[in-house]
Amino acid sequence: MSGLTAEESSPPASAEGTAEAPWHRLDRRMLLIRPVLDGVKSLPLLIGALLLGHGNHWQWAGLAVTAVSVLAGISHCLTSRYRVTATQVEWHTGLLLRKQRAVPRDRIRTVDVVSEPKHRLFSLAAVRIGTGRHSHGPGPGRDELVFDAVGGAEAQRLRTLLLHRKPVDPSLADDADDAAEPPERLVAAVDKRWVRYAPFTLSGLAVVGAIVGTLYHFVHELHLDPVRYGPLRELAERFATAPAWLIVLSAAAGLLVVVSVLSVGGYVLSFWNFRLTREVGGTLHIRRGLVTTRSVSIEEERLRGVEVEEPLPLRAVGGAKCVAVAAGLREGKGADKGGGLLLPPAPIGRVHEVVADVLGEDFAAVPLVRHPRRALTRRMIRAVTGVLLPAAALFLAAWIDLLPSWPWQAALALLPFAVLVGWDRYRTLGHALAGPYLVTRSGSLARTTEIVRRDGLTGLVVLRSLFQRRAGLITVIAPIAAGRGHYHVVDVGESDGLALADRAVPGLLSPFLIAEPVGGNQFPESGEAA
Length: 530
Description:
It is a single chain. The protein has 15 helices and 20 strands. It is of the alpha+beta class and 530 residues long.
């Protein structure tokens, strides 16, 4: 039962990728999986109908809904078909309600190959063809096609055909899985020793928060008191007489252990078998995943730059990760959700090597222009104010006997840490022009170095707030049709910022600038931005 089964009236395989391209159906092995999955989705409804129906018509209604759901899934597998012509990808599906969709090939930005456990059970894969127009949506957009059950080799054939814009003989799909793949060179592969960086990503903290929130909601709805049962009761009795410092220390240590274990588990599941390769046709190919494998391709002509992300805990142990800035990739909740992760948390030196290989420039040695000391003053004021204002509010609450005194005292104890964060935020600031790229760096708790192509910028925006105007600072914003959509050079000196903007996109700001002596105001009197 091959995923390449064509209709009897189909033209020969040599017509693939032309106007006479043959139609292909989804792999029939999905019929062994889809009914089970649809039945499981309908299981809560079915159980509710059986338990609460008490022999009346609601039981039959639950059974009918489950049967319709299973039959709809079977119909989808049997009636879905697709083909790739010279100009577009066509998709037809449905029995009673027919759906026909077509995506022009010149609008295709990404072809992702995903193999979830249900697919890997039968050596299948799902192919997701995206145009990039749905980048900020919550889910698959109307311009994304999903072939959710094709053979592994057929998935690779589609990826090669759609991204390399050239016909590929479907007979290659009968060979090994990599038979249809063009030659490629290894750029980076995950090292098992990199797992040590997982606890410092704090990804397990979000999982712990979600679990605690779910359990709290469950306990609250059922009016349960967990400390009255089993081990939790014994634990509560033991800590009832313990000093407060021991309780806090034990809770912090336990949370640290749980977060570390979950972070390591998430790292292994997400990034095991990670490989970044470059194909001969000029395409970066990313493969990763242990249970659910994912294969993403990024055409280098659509690559606009990279981001090097260094959260404070990860930076403290010399780690970082690298994310692609490319047109058509979904950003969503993080670039790695859209497949743009070029390197998972790894040593910073290895990250710099990957950036140099991908972009063709060694940015590790590029000196960044420091920002003026006035930027330090702004960061110190923000950091200190962020501690003093809550401390003042807590002090007022203690003064009127709403709270004890220790909360505002604990808030004031954070003042030295706030000063250090403000200093580090200033020390991090920097920018440079390195060949065809604009480089900017900012942040402390989440430091990011952004490297974007200057020829990909869609314009420039120069902003000055009231406080920036008083300090003689500006913020230069570089819009680009990729990644987050815009990148900032924050709190740069007015003269340096305007010079940077004029050099980044030569001639764009010239009509808006007024020749002034060095240190003078170069902004036109009638506007604040160009």
